[in-house]
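Quick board copy: two proteins, each given as sequence then tokens.
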Amino acid sequence: MAAVTPPPSERPARVRRFSRAERWVHRTTAGLMLLCVATAAALYVPQIAELVGRRYLVVTVHEWSGILLPAPFLLGLASRAFRRDLRRLNRFGPHDRTWLRAARRRDHRAESRPAGKFNAGQKVYAAWIAGAVLLMLGTGLLMWFTSLAPIVWRTSATFIHDWLSLAVGIVLAGHIAMALADPESRRGMRTGSVERHWAKREHPLWLEDE
């Protein structure tokens, strides 16, 4: 027997967006990432380094927070909801290209930016940050364990690690700024649910799939 769709007046006002496991992965990853950025700033910015001091402790915290950064993601793979959303993030469709074209034109009309559960900007950000974390982890290991590679490799790794750290810091600042500008999006990550009218406006294709 086919499922009966309730009329709009009987539908719940809020829509489930993220599971508890997904929120845990996001919060833990965010904490580790911010710890990496903060300790990197304490290591590379002289004014901050003078205020913080205890360089050996800062280096140790930076190294271990970087090593542990992939751990929440790997543990999150045990969650079916997390794996399902990973597939959504990894899948680009024609509507995503439409969204990106609208973003380039600075067209903020909702009808110009069709999106599923994740819009094209979120998909691009997720792909970029995942690649950056892997590259940072690899170059960081070369810098930490100096016997793993010849000096030319270590020098290159240091160059990439330093400049990519700056890029990650800038991208994270943009991510935080966009989150601060959208209270309902933050509420969705904090509580797991969002207002139905917000979801219909920002992610209309997602509701069609639910």
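And the next:
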Amino acid sequence: MMIDLAILPLYLTTVIALLLIPGPDMLLIASSSLSYGKRVGVFASLGNATSGLILTLLAAMGVSALIAMNPMALQVLRILGGAYLMKMGWDCMRSGPLDAPEIEQQSGLAKMLYRRAVFSNLLNPKALLFFVLFLPQFVSPELTATSGEQMLALGLLLNVMGLVFNLLLVLMVGTLGKPLLKNDKFRANQNKFMGMIFFALAIWLLGSQVQTMS
């Protein structure tokens, strides 16, 4: 057993509460689903889950803890993450109405959003700190499994729950936004809408650095 059943209900309750708190990941997935449809939203969710698995492995191996203890490393991550999101926003804002993707073109768009979701989360130091500070709180000394094994199991459970939650979000937002995808006026501006979302995420990320330094 790699998760203490005595603390499992508390862990599940905490994870559900955290998933319900709006954050940059939820904003990216919801806006992708609204702008480009459920298929793109699913790929954005899978990208988020992929980055979560990578962060889980890093946390289990102790690598993320070493990075989190280095303030300079966290600042570099924030700057890189903010710059990456700014570039994505700029690319979207430069797109004209003719660049709005047709339904049959969304396979390539889905792959692009998958990559963006992976990198935007990996370059978010708050996600790194979350795995470093949150998972160890539920490591039990009562189990024979090592702390690394327990953190791996806890992280995998967190990622599965997060993926299910995000897919439900995609289903809800994608269904509600389906009529918009058939609206020519909306489609002409959907890239600019996503550009504003990426700019908002960049400000969100870089703003956290200013608060930390002040």
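Board note added afterward: Residues 45 and 122 are 14 Å apart (CA to CA).
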